Amino acid sequence: MKTKQHDAIVLSSSGEKDAFAELMSLFNSSPLPDDEVLANLGLFLTSKNLSRLLFFYEIYRKITHTHGIIAEFGVRWGQTLSVMSALRGIFEPFNRHRKIVGFDTFEGFTGMSEKDGTLCECKDGSFSVSPDYENYLDEILSIQEALNPASHLKKYELVKGDAVITVPEYFKCHPETIVSLAIFDFDIYTPTKVALETIKPHLCKGSILVFDELSDDIFPGETLALGEVLGINNVRIQRFPMTSRISYIEIE
Ligand SMILES: C[S@@+](CC[C@H](N)C(=O)[O-])C[C@H]1O[C@@H](n2cnc3c(N)ncnc32)[C@H](O)[C@@H]1O
């Protein structure tokens, strides 16, 4: 069930896993010339992986008429941040206020508690990345900006460390911040609760909160944190038909 490399619980059937392994092998042995690989990445996008990108496309369209930054709580390899940067380049390349800020330890889960249950079989350090990964991601995000207008203005930031400390610190240093979109993907209770409490005064009507694990028995902590900070009864938890796990709330 659990992949050895990255602690993720994989719910695919064995047939799906075999097909995925075959696709991976075709990717690794691709005959495409180097300068055509990036332009043809869609060759390898499965419906599951594509659905996540489509979800964020729909979410980005929603925030183009609201002001403020995009914050991701739980970055890992940074695909979502990179996609957000590309979407900013498409929809609002001159919006210098649409800063993209990512918070992560870049050393995996930190602060698991009994509220996170036992089903996920994770521990502190799960979902870690390779050493100094944040520097590699920084370079990618910098290139994403270089490929779009106004690239002389840096519009992203990676904040490394335990979110229980770094998120309150960031908002203390940047009290002017309005959060237009917050993406919650720490998976676990304690940092999610602290991040939610911290950004609450920085939300406005129309702000969007995305959650990756609501109502998920494998990672119950995210739902508990939302319930304690905003109250499940007080919010409309919405989804798009193309993704099963990820949901969003629009502040009303
Ligand atoms: C599921 S991954 C995020 C995946 C990412 N959002 C994506 O779209 O690929 C969860 C991340 O939360 C981070 N994390 C967990 N606890 C944390 C904490 N206390 N402070 C900062 N980051 C934390 C982990 O390091 C991990 O990278």
Question: In summary, what is this structure?
Answer:
This protein has 252 residues and is an alpha/beta fold.
- How many beta-strand segments? 7
Shape: globular
Give the strand order of the largest sheet, numbering strands 1, 2, ... along the chain.
Answer: 3-2-1-4-5-7-6
Mean pLDDT over the residues? 95
Biggest β-sheet description: 7 strands, mixed
Low-confidence stretches: none
- CATH level-3 fold name of the largest domain: Rossmann fold
**Count of individual helical segments:** 8
Rounded to an integer in angstroms, the radius of gyration calculated over CA atoms is: 18 Å
Strand portion, in percent?
5-15%
Report the order of strands and helices.
HHHEHEHEHEHEHEE
Spell out which ligands are present. Answer: S-adenosylmethionine
Span between termini: 39 Å
Text of the CATH class of the largest domain = Alpha Beta
List keywords for this structure.
252 residues; alpha/beta; Rossmann fold; 2 domains; seven-stranded mixed sheet; 8 helices; 7 strands; 14% strand; binds S-adenosylmethionine
Description:
- The chain has two domains: 12-44; 48-250, Rossmann fold.
- The protein has helices at residues 14-28, 34-37, 47-63, 79-91, 133-146, 163-173, 189-199, 221-229, and strands spanning 69-73, 100-104, 156-160, 179-184, 203-211, 237-238, 247-250.
- It is globular.
- A hairpin with an 8-residue loop joins strand 6 and strand 7 (247-250).
- Helix content is 37%, strand content 14%.
- The protein binds S-adenosylmethionine (SAM).
SSE topology sketch:
Blueprint (H helix, E strand, L loop, with lengths): L13 H15 L5 H4 L9 H17 L5 E5 L5 H13 L8 E5 L28 H14 L9 E5 L2 H11 L5 E6 L4 H11 L3 E9 L9 H9 L7 E2 L8 E4 L2
Parallel strand pairs: 1-2, 1-4, 2-3, 4-5
Antiparallel strand pairs: 5-7, 6-7
This protein binds S-adenosylmethionine.
S-adenosylmethionine (SAM) binds next to helix 4, strand 2 and helix 6.
